[in-house]
């Protein structure tokens, strides 16, 4: 009943309607107060009262406890008072309270993880932007423009010396979602990207274009080529449908496109490939108008190119009689037109043509084409990192600690020795670089090939981190941890010498820097090797260690692609038992790490735990599965995979470069990665569970003869014999647990292997 000029008070008696799902009275002349009795509707999913005048009424507290509600939209209603606690709405997906006179702080209670849109713009909200808005996996828009907000997180919540960009990245927040223009907080220069003017439809535009017909010959088809048919260049005549979602529960249609296609075709009893969304655009409301094409089923026995009369009548009847079941996510719908082309008009009775006016059709087509602009605003991610004070010099404190570096098994090199090993640090020996400086490949006097990490002046490699890495690596010995050969600390130099890893970093392979892609089996082995290295740190090192900077660039690969965890400069010792024998669960420490990999709970609480490493490792797992970076063009990998998983499109984000793979194994790997990346610490698995799950996945791999999978396996000495095995026995052996993953399934501590 929207746009009907209904006036007066909303009758509380409406709450007694037992089967009412959608309560839409927007764009009327309603006044008075909002009846709290509306919260008693047992099946209410959408409450939309936009553009009315409720005379300064407040939002009833009861509205925050409607168990079935999916969408609450009270835009421009002259509402006052505070925003109620909405944590009692378990599946709330859309919250629109903009253009009112709401005041006070934004509630900090946790919102539903299903929420896609939060619009609180144009009010008088004060205080800080609370952390309950971050880590929402499906969030598409957070609009807080034109309020009185002065801070993010709260004055005591943002860790010292941490920029906003770093903060949002650590909290898995998508930078393109946040709108802050018109708040006092915009006086902070670091927020300039969030305070720019944005066009009204900047994030509300989606389009669909035909990309499959370019290779088809136009003269061979008197109708159209179906862009979604499983048969290339299928020529057929579609039915044309104008359709509108009156109150959708999202701000961006793209993540829900495949869900919508499945929902609509199921309601029409058609195959998904018969539906093509020709174009769509957000309209005033906001409503989502779309122009659909429905193609007939391809029948190779009759070579049919048209719907028959009975099928056209059936489809039209479903639309016009509203036989498609309602869906809370897509909300109520309306049919704009059902159009028959001249082909069908000539073939069938003209009475089948739509009664919708040509003017209405022209209007929706024009509006669609005007609105169908691809989202092009990409906010570049700039991550500011903390700089050291002054230059990298040998302080008195560092000189006093040099005696601690005389550790057995770790050699102290002179500057001259390492300069000689690298031809005086020639540029041709450089194999990498980072915030700390550069990495060189060198050959020592005894012929040993090593990697030399050389810190430079003004780098992020502080003296404390340098000393920490030497002390830790000198006593850590595991197959999946990089070995420290020695160090140099003279002539204002800080250099660490490691075993050389000929296949570089995992990041090199996933980024495409190394062109030969990693197969699925090899990626699974890398995941397991990395996990065993971290498990050793957590459970078998004495005392245990939290790595604190697990990322793809800190996982190195040797000549056999064995994964080894590196860079312990930020590592911390796990808490030790107190005098009563109790062991604290965490270490209180300032936040350090890399945006995109950083545990959100650690970031907010300063409590570093073993589960912080689990989160970072989960992000690495997602990189292995998707080939995508943790943060790219303002998009956060954890959030993007969550969206794909929730919308049933997870296979679209799996990296196609890894070739053939068992789908069940990939599915379990995805589930494990997502569990590792849960926001709540207690929801993540332990490293023991991670390793055992990866072992189980390895045992599930079938006995493929796919060369790409066979190639990815390393040669295990125990599997080598003087008599070459048959091809069938080779495939069988490839997928035994000992061959694929080697050593102990839990700890991964190196076992002694005697070659045959």
Question: What's this model, at a glance?
Answer:
By secondary structure, this protein is of the alpha/beta class. The protein starts with 6 loop residues before the first strand and ends in a 15-residue tail after the last helix.
Summary keywords:
756 residues, alpha/beta, Leucine-rich repeat, LRR (right-handed beta-alpha superhelix), Phosphorylase Kinase, domain 1, 4 domains, seven-stranded parallel sheet, six-stranded mixed sheet, 18 helices, globular, disordered C terminus, EC 2.7.11.1, transmembrane helix, Kinase-like_dom_sf
List the helices and strands and how they pair.
Elements: E1 7-9, E2 22-24, E3 29-31, E4 46-48, E5 71-73, E6 94-96, E7 103-105, E8 117-119, E9 124-129, E10 141-143, E11 148-152, H1 164-170, E12 178-179, E13 224-225, E14 235-236, E15 239-245, H2 257-268, E16 275-283, E17 287-294, H3 309-320, E18 333-339, H4 342-347, H5 358-371, H6 396-401, E19 411-412, H7 415-421, E20 430-434, E21 437-443, E22 449-455, H8 463-473, E23 484-488, E24 495-499, H9 506-510, H10 520-539, E25 545-546, E26 555-557, E27 563-565, E28 572-573, E29 587-588, H11 600-605, E30 607-608, H12 610-626, E31 631-632, E32 635-636, H13 637-646, H14 663-676, H15 687-700, H16 707-711, H17 727-734, H18 737-741
Parallel strand pairs: 1-3, 2-4, 4-5, 5-6, 6-8, 7-9, 8-10, 9-11, 10-12, 19-23
Antiparallel strand pairs: 13-14, 15-17, 15-18, 16-17, 20-21, 21-22, 22-24, 23-24, 25-28, 26-27, 29-30, 31-32
């Amino acid at each position: 009943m929207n746009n009907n000029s209904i006036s007066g008070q909303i009758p509380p008696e409406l709450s007694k309607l037992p089967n009412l799902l959608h309560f839409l009275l927007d764009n009327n002349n309603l006044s008075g107060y909002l009846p709290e009795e509306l919260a008693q509707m047992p099946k209410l999913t959408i409450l939309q009262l936009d553009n009315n005048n409720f005379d300064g009424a407040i939002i009833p507290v009861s509205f925050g406890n409607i168990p079935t509600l999916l969408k609450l939209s009270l835009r421009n209603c002259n509402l006052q008072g505070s925003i109620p606690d909405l944590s009692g709405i378990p599946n709330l997906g859309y919250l629109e309270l903009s253009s009112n006179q709401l005041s006070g702080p934004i509630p900090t209670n946790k919102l539903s993880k299903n929420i896609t849109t939060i619009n609180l713009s144009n009010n008088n909200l004060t205080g800080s932007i609370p952390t309950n808005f971050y880590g929402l996996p499906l969030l598409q828009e957070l609009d807080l423009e034109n309020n009185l907000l002065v801070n993010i997180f709260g004055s005591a919540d943002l860790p010292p010396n941490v920029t906003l960009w770093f903060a949002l990245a650590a909290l898995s927040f998508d930078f393109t979602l946040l709108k802050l223009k018109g708040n006092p907080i915009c006086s902070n220069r670091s927020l300039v990207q969030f305070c720019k003017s944005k066009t009204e439809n900047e994030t509300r535009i989606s389009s669909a274009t035909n990309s499959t017909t370019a290779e088809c010959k136009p003269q061979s088809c008197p109708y159209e080529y179906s862009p979604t048919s499983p048969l290339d260049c299928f020529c057929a005549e579609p039915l044309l449908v104008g359709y509108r979602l009156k109150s959708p529960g999202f701000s961006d249609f793209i993540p829900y496109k495949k869900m919508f296609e499945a929902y609509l075709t199921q309601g029409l009893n058609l195959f998904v490939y018969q539906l093509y969304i020709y174009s769509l655009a957000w309209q005033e409301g906001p409503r989502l108008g779309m122009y659909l094409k429905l193609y007939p089923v391809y029948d190779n026995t009759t070579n049919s190119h048209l719907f028959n009369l009975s099928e056209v009548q059936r489809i039209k009847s479903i639309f016009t009689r509203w036989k498609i079941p309602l869906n809370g996510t897509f909300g109520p719908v309306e049919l704009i037109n059902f159009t028959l082309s001249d082909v069908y008009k000539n073939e069938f009775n003209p009475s089948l043509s739509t009664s919708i006016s040509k003017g209405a059709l022209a209007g929706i087509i024009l509006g669609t084409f005007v609105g169908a602009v691809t989202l092009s605003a990409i906010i570049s991610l700039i991550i500011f990192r903390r700089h050291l004070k002054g230059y990298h010099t040998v302080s008195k404190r560092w000189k006093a600690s040099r005696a601690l570096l005389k550790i057995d098994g770790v050699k102290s090199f002179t500057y001259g020795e390492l300069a000689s090993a690298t031809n005086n640090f020639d540029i041709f020996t450089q194999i990498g670089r980072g915030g700390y400086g550069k990495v060189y490949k060198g050959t020592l006097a005894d012929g040993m090939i090593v990697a030399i990490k050389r810190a430079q002046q003004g780098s992020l490699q502080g003296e404390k981190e340098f000393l920490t890495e030497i002390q830790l690596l000198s006593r850590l010995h595991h197959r999946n941890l990089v070995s420290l050969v020695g160090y140099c600390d003279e002539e204002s130099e800080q250099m660490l010498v490691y075993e050389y890893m000929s296949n570089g970093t995992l990041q090199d392979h996933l980024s495409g820097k190394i062109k030969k892609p990693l197969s699925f089996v090899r990626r699974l082995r890398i995941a397991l090797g990395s996990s065993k290295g971290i498990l050793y740190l957590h459970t078998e090192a004495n005392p245990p260690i939290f790595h604190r900077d697990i990322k793809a660039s800190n996982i190195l690969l040797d000549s056999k692609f064995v994964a080894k965890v590196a860079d312990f400069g930020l590592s911390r010792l796990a808490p030790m038992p107190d005098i009563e024998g109790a062991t604290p669960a965490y270490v209180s420490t300032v936040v350090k790490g890399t945006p995109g990999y950083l545990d959100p709970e650690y970031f907010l609480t300063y409590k570093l735990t073993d589960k912080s490493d689990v989160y970072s490792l989960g992000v690495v797992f997602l990189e292995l599965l998707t080939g995508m970076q943790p943060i790219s063009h303002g998009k956060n990998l954890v959030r993007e995979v969550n969206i794909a998983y929730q919308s049933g499109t997870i296979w679209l984000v799996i990296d196609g470069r890894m070739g053939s793979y068992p789908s069940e194994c990939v599915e379990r790997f995805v589930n494990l990665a997502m569990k590792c990346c849960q926001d709540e610490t207690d929801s993540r698995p332990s490293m023991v569970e991670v390793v055992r799950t990866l072992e189980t996945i390895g045992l599930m791999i079938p006995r493929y003869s796919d060369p790409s999978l066979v190639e990815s396996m390393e040669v295990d000495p125990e599997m080598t014999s003087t008599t070459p095995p048959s091809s069938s026995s080779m495939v069988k052996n490839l997928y035994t647990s000992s061959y694929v993953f080697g050593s102990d399934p839990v700890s991964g501590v190196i076992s002694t292997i005697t070659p045959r």
